[in-house]
Predict the structure of Histidine phosphatase family protein.
Amino acid sequence: MGTLYLVRHGQASFGADDYDQLSELGHRQSVRLGEYFAHQGIHFDGLIAGTLRRHKQTLAGILQGMNRAGEHLSWEGLNEYDSEAVIAAVHPEPLKKPDSPEMYRHHFRLLRDGLAQWMAGTTSPRGMPAYGDFVAGVAGALDHVRANHYGQKVLIVTSGGPISTAVGHVLGTSPETTIELNLRIRNTAVTEFAFTPKRHMLVTFNTLPHLDAPELRDWVTYA
């Protein structure tokens, strides 16, 4: 039996011109997770990350917290969908940057609708693969882990979309459930699978064991 840990990136820069950049808190979240892994005596035999900047920065922070270095495998199939393209496919008019609770809610209502239509194949967001190809990219990473790391511990750093897709793929959930999982994943949350050469089995989802102290309550974020 092997263990796969999927970690969502630390807090990024939602609403900024460049979202794909960890905030200062996002970096601290990542380092804290690495410290937790080290304290638990967890050593990773394999490191895999998407190719986005926030994925690489989060992995670097985790390794810093573990006081170790390591080469990782870059996997484009673990990159997040383009949320702006998803929204534009159902709302062609330009959106203002969200700066109020209502505008944030409006943004995520549109995202939910856009994801549902993309998954159903009724829209084709610009510059994005078909949903089936997106799922295949995530499933390919899971297949790689099973084929190459049986009996080992593996860390994948990615985004909420691929993590929820991985959970949905393993459990056979509906698209609607996959969307709900996606919109609930917190920054640097850990999702754990046990795996054999034949299959993955969900153990935990969206946990924050490294942020469970009362003084770290303000470190829990979603964007």
In short: The chain has two domains: 2-80+130-219, 82-127. The mean pLDDT is 94. The chain is about 40% helix and 15% strand.
